[in-house]
Amino acid sequence: MYKVLSKADLPRLIEKWMAQATVYAPLRQGDFTKFAPLNDPAQADLYYAANTRYPPKALFLPQSEVMFRAKDGEFESTEDEVSSRVILGIHSCDTRALQLLDGVFWAGDYQDPYWAKKRGQTTLVVLGCANPCATCFCTSVGSGPFDKRGADVMLIDIGDEYVADVRNEKGQALFDHLPDASQEQTDTSRQVQAAAAAKMEKPFESEGIEDKLYSLFDNDFWPKIQQSCLGCGVCTFLCPTCHCFDIVDEAQRSERVRNWDTCMFRIYSQEASGHNPRPTNTERTRQRIMHKYAYFVELYDEIGCTGCGRCVRYCPVDLDIRQIIRSAQAWEES
Amino acid sequence: MHNPYKPIPMRIARTVVETDDQSLKSLELTFERGADREQFFSKYRPGQFCQLSIFGKGEAPFGVASAAWEGNFVRFTINKIGVFTRAIHKMKSGDPIGLRGPLGNWYPIEDWKGSNIVIIGGGCAFTTLFALAQHLLPPEIRSQYGDLAVIYGAREPGLFLYKKELETWYEREDINLYQAIDNPREGWGHLVGYVPTVTKEIAPAAENTVAFVCGPSVMIRFTLPVLDELGLPSERIYTSLEKRMKCGIGKCGRCNVGSKYVCKDGPVFTLAELRELPADL
């Protein structure tokens, strides 16, 4: 179902949503944007940056999340402490990341109630990416700037209006009262989508990458390509699909908390005996890349990277995952 | 929705100092709620592990060291090695403690009815192997299997676990226990030698035999070629892996070997399965 929304009417629509839900949108924070709850519709800044620096996965898997409060020797779960939410202006790469993480948290024998509650309570109003930036590579990893998978609504910017592709009932609840888009408007929206994808350079083809990486597992490829890595972990913290966490007790606050963790840190896999299966940056870089481009593919038949480009943009030594993949593909096995 | 991160309340019913150096202690935990007990024993199979939880100190994974028939308790044998295990060693009978589990897969013993069983263990890794051997001992289960041999090595006589129970095994006709220490010691009436050497000497017949091996990595590394020489195929050699873990349910990362999570897809793997995985141990 295609609806049309004039840009001038967006603030009023947001206000309407705000009456029933917490509405998150990108907000300016210095030179960057970050998803935060809106107090005023005018705060939403959908265009300042192609992608927020801080990934919206944090709205589902917070950087630090209280899991339990300890009370009289009992663990009281916090999973129900979430109410209805709308996320406006999230892009396809970050939406896709949530969908990939559903495979980890919201499927199989053990479902994660914290993740599931937040996902269930949230409507995703995705803004298609008409102007992908130079570090974006979603088209290389089986996605695209207007990938609609996981979107409840996809907004396509056609100038003074958005064409809203309403994908399901959750989306209908927010957009139902709006007029239908005309044939001309939907045609224009299709052209916008095609033009954006065509504009993007494809830095690599991902076909067969998992086999190539497996074949390089013990190769000197890894020590060579990671040499400039500082092991700071920013690539994993800002990554929308990285989901590793640590569980710690904050005894003074009587809370059991989970915090983002990263395979780029030594202590991450350090065992009590002193043994560490990943003692240097070489093994840790291999783990980071292979988790996304080999293990995830094996488990879910999808690449565990959505091409958002954050790890490329914010790496302090300019290690570029696109270059790593290209190098792997070209690497000659000795 | 069920919260798999939420520990169930347990109580320490009994503690046993296992080794002469007091570094290993067994705790027998009982359930505070009958429903939890039923739930636990409806799922538990030897080879599985649990997360033990002390609020303020955190959680850590431990293999279960008891068989269901032993009673309404769950035994864990814990090596005093870090912050959490030091805290556990200080705990006394009657103290409360949290538990999540049973977690992970198990030794698939029911797939091997009619086979001879060889259990090979070393040092403090004998815990889940002990649970497996105990599980096999009641007559109605024991009668479903062929010969049962247990090879168990430790550096010193004082470092064996479950000494009292092991003594009773010597009195039985239906289990052959071979205990070995690294170096000769006066008064030691059993075998002397490293586990791989002892295994070679005992040379259990490979035909219709399945092996369960767990111990320090150096022991495993040298025992596997011996089993290979004896003619045991890699599909009939099981081992159990250890990794740093947090969630225990395949979400938090960290314990993976290739695309397998040791907590969820393991901890038990056949040698054939391990050979398919990248060398990330």
Describe the overall structure.
The complex is a heterodimer of chains A (334) and B (281). With 334 residues, chain A is α/β, with parallel strands linked by helices. Helices cover 32% and strands 20% of the residues of chain A. Chain A has helices spanning 10-18, 92-105, 113-120, 169-175, 183-199, 209-215, 221-225, 234-237, 281-300, 310-314, 321-330, and strands at 2-6, 22-29, 32-37, 64-71, 74-77, 85-90, 122-127, 153-157, 161-166, 245-250, 255-260. In chain A, the strands form 2 sheets. Chain A has a 7-stranded mixed sheet with strand order 1-9-8-7-6-2-3. Chain A is globular and about 65 Å long. The mean pLDDT of chain A is 94. Chain B contains 8 helices and 15 strands. A 7-stranded mixed sheet of chain B has the order 10-9-8-7-11-12-15, sandwiched between helices. In chain B, helix 7 (217-230) links the parallel strand 11 (209-214) and strand 12. The two termini of chain B are 35 Å apart. Chains A and B meet through strand 4, strand 5, helix 3, strand 10 and helix 9 of A and strand 4 of B.
Summarize the structure.
Chain A is built from eleven helices and eleven strands. Chain A is of the alpha/beta class and 334 residues long.
Which properties best describe this structure?
heterodimer, A: 334 residues, 7-stranded mixed sheet, 4-stranded antiparallel sheet, 11 helices, 20% strand, globular, B: 281 residues, alpha/beta, Elongation Factor Tu (Ef-tu), domain 3, 6-stranded antiparallel sheet, 8 helices, 30% strand
